[in-house]
Amino acid sequence: MKIIHIASEINPFAKTGGLADVVGSLPASISRLGHKVVMFMPLYKQVSEKYSLEFHSDFPLHTSQGIKTVLIKKKVIDKDTTLYFIGEHSYFFRDVIYGDYVDNAERFSFFCRAVLAFIKKEDLSPQVIHCHDWQSALVPLYARQDRYFEKTCFGYTIHNLAYQGVFPYEKIHQISLDPSFFTPDKLEFYGKINFMKAGVIYSDFINTVSPTYRDETLTSKFGWGLEGLLDTRSKDYYGIVNGLDYTEWDPANDPDIFVKYDSLSLRKKEENRKKIMKKSNLLVRPGKALFVAITRLADQKGMDLLVHAVHKIAASGHSFILLGSGEKRYEDMFLHLEKTYKDKVRCYMKYDFAMAHKLYAAGDFFLMPSKFEPCGLSQLISFRYGNIPIVRKTGGLADTVENISENLSSGDGIVFEDYNTKSIDKAIEKAFEVYKSDSFDAIRKRIMLNDFSWERTAKKYISLYERYSNA
Hints:
This protein is an alpha/beta fold. The protein has helices at 18-32, 45-50, 89-92, 104-121, 139-143, 195-202, 211-216, 227-232, 266-279, 303-315, 328-340, 353-362, 378-384, 395-400, 421-436, 440-448, 454-469, and strands at residues 2-6, 36-42, 54-63, 66-78, 81-87, 128-132, 153-158, 166-168, 188-189, 192-194, 205-208, 237-239, 290-294, 319-323, 345-348, 365-368, 388-392, 414-416. The strands form three sheets. The chain has a nine-stranded mixed β-sheet, with helices on both faces. The chain has a six-stranded parallel β-sheet with strand order 15-14-13-16-17-18, with helices on both faces. The radius of gyration is 23 Å and the shape is elongated. It starts with a strand and ends with a helix. GO terms for molecular function: alpha-1,4-glucan glucosyltransferase (ADP-glucose donor) activity; alpha-1,4-glucan glucosyltransferase (UDP-glucose donor) activity. Belongs to the glycosyltransferase 1 family. Bacterial/plant glycogen synthase subfamily. It is an enzyme of class 2 (transferase).
């Protein structure tokens, strides 16, 4: 099959979150399974400045703002995979990829229309067009109005339902749509235009990034106002857990960690812990564990519970290192913890790729007390590095982490269910017990062998492509 993926960010060219990781890995895995893959993303300023790309072509595109020139550059990934970049200087040559721009609706509707125009112009004739998140959600709507795409199957992946692309009604003309699309059964959403609704309504199948999150999005608590619409599409709505790129995340071959190791050489993992604690000016205490968290400092990530947990960890003589940035109120809370527990807590208020690798390798336990989590990659990475995850039972965390049994003979993490301090206290206390137990190394070896490879995930997507292409 020829399969097209359309997304606003693709790793390593542009990344603000997990979307880029998924679209950077999934198409490559699909290609390795014998399919032709074409990808599209915007040509951002940052991409133009950092990467040398081949000029392909340019062509005019009529918009409500007049005729604009679509610039096409490309990167051949391998013999079966090509990535095309959609450029337009006034829309994408900006310092920030997204930002709170007043013309975000125009920017990404232009992107969607330009992709379809290029596909038709080059006669790519894809069997499947797979769109990701709100930025590409108008693609299936626009395509349904063109007979060229009448035999094309459209798939749509929701990576995080909280971000839907909602804009004022006045944008309807700027995004080249007739006002007849502004009805409750189409794009209207509480008096505004909702891009994500287009992806849900006009695609053949929809999925999100874990089975549990799929079910959660059908409830008022996690549906963000779209639970009713998603329920009407429930027979075509799936949950598929993301995979992990084991070529990037492999402690046996990781150039960013202090000492390489595998499941048979866990003593070398201890060297990583000692070195990162020394670098962080933390005191190494015999019999005490290192807890780590790598996270965006946002309410979704359970920051209030994490702050509470760090108090308990440090007061018990254990250590904690945070890597992340976000809301200032949370940054202030963690900096206060750092001052309170000077030789036990260190907070790096940034995201540093190499430091993240070092912390995965150094940590004994990895904290993810999320309020909701569509899939999560951090727990999968922590498995690979023998860093036992402590997670709340929600979304993809519920689908990927099995609670360690009372006798410690099964399970691969510590799971708590209720979002309150009592529950996370019990989880931390269990971690203390696991750390002191004779089974600690056996658990770490066990979790390092977990398989969440992208090939397994890719096969599930290919199954959907085949099912709906032949429907």
